[in-house]
Amino acid sequence: MTAHAPAQEHAPDHPTPGTYAKIGLVLFVLTALEVGLYEFTFGDHAGPLGHQIEPFFIPLLLALSAVKFALVAMYYMHLKNDSKLFSGVFVFPLIIAAVVIAAMIALMAYHWAFARSG
Amino acid sequence: MSDHAHALETSTGLDSRKLAIWTFIGSECMFFATLISNYLVNKGRSLVGPFAHEPWTDPATGKVLEPIIEIPLVTVGTALLLFSSLFVVLALYGAQKGNRKMLLGWLAATLLCGMFFVGMQVYEFTHFVHKGLTLQRNMFGASFFILTGFHGTHVTIGVIWLATMFYLALRRKLPPERSLNLEMAALYWHFVDVVWIVIFPVVYLIR
Question: What is the CATH number of domain B36-205?
Fold first, then answer.
């Protein structure tokens, strides 16, 4: 078999410090948005707007969190430019992790709603 | 010339050490998934206070006490952890380009942010214990300390790992051809950061 190749033979082009700084700024703004959302919904600055936001609070927060997660993984962890094998090794367990969390919540919701009442 | 400087031959063309750290990070995803799901399924199941977001009555004194979570301090810690991810990637850029000043400066900044985060968590835990929240007190205490405690342990390990890299860089033992050593530490550090990106809203912001 002659498939062996020197490791990192094709080193991927990583982003520049300017791109890293821009991503850092976006991450900071998204975190400020998360905390701002909390403040306007439940915090000291909660008002009529907060009551309107409340039904969308958790989906919005999870969406912001997912965007931050993706930005760090793609740019800082270089998954966007690196080998697809690394993406697979990371994303596959991530899907299992998400399924585990969803399954546990569903199972315990069923348990508390029905199973305990007999 | 050291043997580490030579590229190792692999069937994928990728460095085995980098594949190993990604595999480890993948396994860590599932580890933290169990802790996060444990926190979520026990959320709101505490029979006695202190509670995360609701006021509670101390049965011993009859006094109504404030919710235990304090957002401002944790927000600062979160921001610093995010900035530390930016700093470590700039340090890695410096290492890969052979820019020693950039490597040492940004790595030192990353270490400071990491140490501040650990300090913040130690302060928060101590503060919570003084307010009556312990591992044994209620379901919130047990799941909160287990989840954030394991994350804090990972941050501490990351700080030690990065401090080792800083020491090697100071002694000029982290040349561009060995920058993969820092890249592995940086990948671990970013993972610790993305886990906190999930923990922060789940534990501190969602009621």
Answer: 1.20.120.80
